[in-house]
């Protein structure tokens, strides 16, 4: 089955290419913003290599630039990346047969995009063939084709952003790209009434609490926002709560 | 806007944030078989985390310092509005950032 190995890998790389239009500017911003917030080039690239999760990197950069409490910076990174718990649980069956070391490598490069593409392909393959063909050994090649491509492009984009950001005059205000990227992620995340309530509550509490010590406004905003979303869901302000789902709850 | 933290503090944040993120990513991939699923209550709460956290992160950057009309109409707010419109229509990071930066600089030039 050697011939399957490169073709799965190649498919993964090919399917990733259209996504790069969104990834490259995001990575450039991560590089530029790091330098603008006063991180050294090495620290900015180190953040990309060690954490490798865009939105949480930008949040860390923004909060460090504002001299936020260090614990709050780490906590924010954790909260933003908590969604990966769901990805990890959902993709775990496909990595079951792999060695501990390979699974650790697969986990390190787990991103929104790699999860979404790989799961779409695996789920389309037919359930049993998925897990057991060849003892499952060729499973990760498609995933790694996607995930490693994203990793390489992300690091290259961050390095380019660092170099570019250091050369650009202050008056261009490139640091403003950070909240803009958050807006680009926020708008699609507001998909129904309940998530709108979560966003509005989170924003309102964060603004009111902006002066509190230890960035309590941000943490309170996140917690109250999630609570608001759950409450709104319970009151029927979502598509998820109605119809088929309601039946088996 | 620029951090006053020293290199040790910044590296500590990078390493701690990276280890925690890796632990989240590895959690179920490693534990599968012992823990089958994300608990339902956690999964439901996680649905609202992106909207709540991103909104809480972004809102103070656009909130006006005072409530008078001239103070509200800042270049940042106008750039942000342009970005929201672009995000709404394109759902694309590139166009959103481009629209926001264009809006910011146009507003700085005009206001």
From TrEMBL, chain A:
Topological type in the membrane: Multi-pass membrane protein
Q: Is Glycoprotein given among the entry's keywords? A: no
Q: Which organism is it from?
A: Halobaculum marinum
Q: What is this protein called?
A: AzlC family ABC transporter permease
Q: Could you name the Gene Ontology cellular component terms for this entry?
A: plasma membrane
Q: Which Pfam families match?
A: AzlC
Where do transmembrane segments lie in this chain?
16-35, 68-89, 141-168, 180-208, 214-232
Alphabetized PANTHER family for the sequence: INNER MEMBRANE PROTEIN YGAZ
Location in the cell reads: Cell membrane
Family of the protein in this entry: Belongs to the AzlC family.
UniProt keywords, alphabetically: Cell membrane, Membrane, Transmembrane, Transmembrane helix, Transport
Automatic annotation (TrEMBL), chain B:
Q: Which domain of life is it from?
A: Archaea
TM spans (from-to): 12-33, 45-73
* Keywords for this protein: Membrane, Transmembrane, Transmembrane helix
Q: What is this protein called?
A: AzlD domain-containing protein
Q: Which organism is it from?
A: Halobaculum marinum
